[in-house]
Amino acid sequence: MMEIKDMIKPENLVYEKTKVLTNNIMHYCPGCSHGTIHKLIAQVIDEMGIQDKTVGVSPVGCAVLAYNYIDIDWQQAAHGRAPALATGIKRLNPDKYVFTYQGDGDLASIGTAEIMHACSRGENIVVIFVNNAIYGMTGGQMAPTTLVGQVTATTPYGRNTELNGHPLRITELLAQLKGTCYVTRQSVQNPAGVRKTKRAIQKAFENSMMKKGLSFVEVVGTCNSGWKLTPTDANKWMEEHMFPEYPLGDIKDE
Fold first, then answer.
1. The domain 26-246: what is its CATH number?
2. Nearest CA among 69, 98, 67 for reference residue 85
């Protein structure tokens, strides 16, 4: 019996899943932004033809199992230490495309020193930073990026600046360091955002081989489980509350 794939002529093919993305069922909560970002990374790697030249580094967090979904070489890092591990990999293998995939609880909290010094040194790596303003994997606690007044497991009455301080705009801080060449903040809540984020990821990968320094791509995402919202309401809440605090667009492009 003829299979469907044999019946589809190349000229009639509208969409085909990238082969860099595995067929494994993702463990992320429905509506989570991670799945979309994984897809974009896989598409960029596929379209650039660098699957056998790419090394990803994932630390602790929701994306700890990223190696299950993107079919490239992966290394596992301790919590917050992905930039240090990526530095070693890139320096030993300068012909490789090396990137880290980190959440806000990981990068902007326990990993603050690691990312600061990697950016200051101007390591030729890519850092993809997913900011959903909460610790998603470990129970929905307050993160450095949690908004003022935002309710979390550890701020049941909302984040209070007198007690908890202010949200950390880590991306703006990193843009000031001379070792960064490209710093941008994007999103994936709609088709236009997805396209912009994909272009940003590709540009970051291209920069890493031009020895221009570190490229940093922040993606503002949702955590509907941690926020206790439906996926649709989580997107609306992100647009209304996250974007004013974390405005989208390129912050640095050299």
1. 3.40.50.970
2. 98
